Amino acid sequence: MSAFQKETILSVRHWTDSLFSFTATRDPGFRFQNGQFAMIGLEVEGKPLMRAYSMASANHEEELEFFSIKVQDGPLTSRLQKIREGDIILVGRKATGTLITGNLIPGKRLLLLSTGTGLAPFASLIKDPDVYENYETIVLAHGCRQVSELAYGEHLVGGLRDHEFFGPLMRDKLVYYPTVTREPFRNRGRITDLIASNQMFDDIGQSGLDIETDRIMLCGSPAMLEELPAMFAARGFVEGNHSQPGHFVIEKAFVER
């Protein structure tokens, strides 16, 4: 248990029957880069039950925030979805992950492509002033099955647009592109298909993929994490990591259990 810090739940919000977010206290010694994840969980029968969760809060914020799916028979999420204010969670003392800007070679447009709770690390990154300093445009794409599942992302972006500091930055640089696959909505379809057909770029009034200027981060469903890297590689994009920055990076560790 010494590898984990005990933190207190400060708030819980259930967005749909399958999605919720929560905030918790943050130990002053816990450091992370925006876009990283940590192991978090609960003590069950005297033992830690942990899963990887991306921080949805930025590294300059005093509280931790997480965005989670509910899996009724999931070992952790079946329990975690029942937490309330004042409960205790465990947070690993070390953060890690590939979705950090240092793993990308410099570019002009940053594409943050997510599905479901894969939005979480990008919730952290769009609250990072350095991202706005380093890129001319940031495109945050979030794909879900139903319109209701976009609620967390819409609340996040709406709040930042009204923020004293981030509001002016976002108006100039951030493009939010929500899309759904199973209901009528202004943007329809899978992110993979919308990029392949250039529809997403047409919708936001921007040019298509350009290896010279575009840098990409991916976090989401297994299908997206298989299809999009193959598409990018076919166009000459190179995957980056901690030892060698590239045109795009992938995170596969967000929780689905």
UniProtKB/TrEMBL annotation:
Residues 2-105 form the FAD-binding FR-type domain. InterPro entries: Cbr1-like_FAD-bd_dom, FAD-bd_FR_type, Flavoprot_Pyr_Nucl_cyt_Rdtase, FNR_bac, FNR_nucleotide-bd, FNR_type-1, OxRdtase_FAD/NAD-bd, Riboflavin_synthase-like_b-brl. Keywords: FAD, Flavoprotein, NADP, Nucleotide-binding, Oxidoreductase. Pfam families: FAD_binding_6, NAD_binding_1. Its cofactor is FAD. PROSITE patterns: FAD_FR. The keyword Manganese does not apply. Its EC number is 1.18.1.2. One of its GO terms (molecular function) is ferredoxin-NADP+ reductase activity. Belongs to the ferredoxin--NADP reductase type 1 family. This is ferredoxin--NADP(+) reductase. It comes from Bradyrhizobium cytisi.
